[in-house]
Amino acid sequence: MENIKVLIPENVIKKRVAALGKSISEYYADERVYAVCILKGAAVFMTDLVRQMQGDVVMDFMTVSSYGNATESSGNIEVKTDVSFDCKDKNVLIVEDIIDTGNTLYYIKDLFEKRGAASVKICTLIDKPSRRQKDVNADWKGIDVPDTFIVGYGLDYAQKYRNIPFIGELEFTD
Ligand code: IMP
Ligand code: MG
Predict the structure, then answer these.
(1) Burial readout 120-140 (b: 16 or more C-beta within 10 A, e: otherwise)
(2) How many Å apart are CA 101 and CA 133, to the nearest integer?
(3) pLDDT given at position 68
(4) What's the rounded Cα separation, in Å, for the pair 79 and 129?
(5) For ligand 1, atom 9, which residue shows the shortest CA distance?
(6) pLDDT, tens digit, for every residue of 17-40?
(7) Potential cystine with 80: which of 44, 63, 104, 153 (Cβ 3.0-4.6 Å)?
(8) Is the pLDDT of residue 75 over 90?
(9) pLDDT value at position 173?
(10) How far does residue 100's CA lie from ligand 1's centre (Å)?
(11) What atom in ligand 1 is closest to the CA of residue 148?
């Protein structure tokens, strides 16, 4: 059996997302930014975040797979669905649900840089710094969490729990 313990309540997420949106908007000012949502995990965060941003924001989406096991990614990243714009000379903001080992974002950031983006920044809602395997950090981040498996607000366990409005710790009970 699985049990979910509230770790980050809805109102805390809401406040952090608003602050991130404001800070990101101030940074890009009147320059266009291409916000790239990493599906599926970041979908919920992305839609809330862009509504807290002012200015010229283009939304785009990317699906990557990492051939990990159920709770950890591997270093083998593959782009399954690519973005629909030419990122050359564009400001790319990667929007991710969580940075864990860093394998996924390390690969994606490098990919946009190689394609000639003018700038590549990262915004993650959740960070698990203690789990890092690759040297990659967020330019904007919402909340640090300890080394525990979390679900909700877009994050899943075997595709479940993405629709929960808060972030919770997944506990396995028998
Ligand atoms: P990384 O490549 O290890 O940084 O992992 C990034 C991806 O692993 C995230 O985009 C999530 O999809 C998934 N992931 C990592 N930790 C968790 C977690 O605690 N809950 C749900 N998904 C997670
Ligand atoms: Mg993800």
Answers:
(1) bbbbbbbbbeeebebebebeb
(2) 5
(3) 63
(4) 24
(5) 98
(6) 999 999 999 999 999 999 999 999
(7) 63
(8) no
(9) 82
(10) 5
(11) 19
